[in-house]
Amino acid sequence: MEKIYQIGVEATLDVIGGKWKPLILCHLGKGPLRTGQLRRAIPQITQKVLTQQLRELEDDQIIDRHVFQQVPPKVVYQLTDYGKTLNQILVEMSIWGEQRIKRLQAAHPDEKIELLGDHQGYLEGH
Amino acid sequence: MEKIYQIGVEATLDVIGGKWKPLILCHLGKGPLRTGQLRRAIPQITQKVLTQQLRELEDDQIIDRHVFQQVPPKVVYQLTDYGKTLNQILVEMSIWGEQRIKRLQAAHPDEKIELLGDHQGYLEGH
DNA sequence: GTAAGTAGGTACTAAAAAGTGCCTATCCGA
DNA sequence: TCGGATAGGCACTTTTTAGTACCTACTTAC
Question: Which CATH number is B53's domain given?
Fold first, then answer.
């Protein structure tokens, strides 16, 4: 595996970029979750992509995967201490992003621009 | 144009994500640049992709495009005030990313993992 | 004994992002 | 008058990322 970065930001985007990772990290930021809980929290994601993203986050040591040896299987994911160091960045990206959405909505009142969910994102408890 | 976000972070990634935008923003963060200066600063990017990324940043009001009506043409790009509000986030992503690269290098001393350039990125002058 | 719930694998397809190659127009200097 | 420098357009291909559909194996409850 060969990784050559021009600037540090690229290495960070490597970890938190992609369509689903921010959302996964947001949910795990509130506490450990089982696979099924994550899947229900993010209904639009497919099992395949969820597993794939979780593997990548695990390889990057952002999250921990706990397998309970029992039947039916039980797997719990949670942020590692290293993963928690992303929190400040994610909170700030969240704040900036929410302001951008408001800006877009103000500039294009006729277009469909929305922020779903309870808007709490990373902004609670930090 | 329809944009539906689950959380704010996605809106931020919409703006700074992608393969070249962080690098473009890094260079423009040091001052206004002409198209050719940018292209020489980022030799691996092609003219087509550079133009395309600049257009998107312009549409997002992150940068300004000044056309000087003369021959040969002269076009200067620079961060808008709004664009400058991204700076703190970019600086933190830069710091986190540089630490991650060191971490990767320590964990995989046999693999090719590098941070090119003068490593100054966003870390100078902020 | 059959269905539901558990976590996940695999082959294939579709969509998004990035890259290639070649084109325009104008002026200046050699 | 020919080549280089300016900024960028357009058609097409490749690569990357995400999505679809269908499969395993085990246990409990009905």
Answer: 1.10.10.10
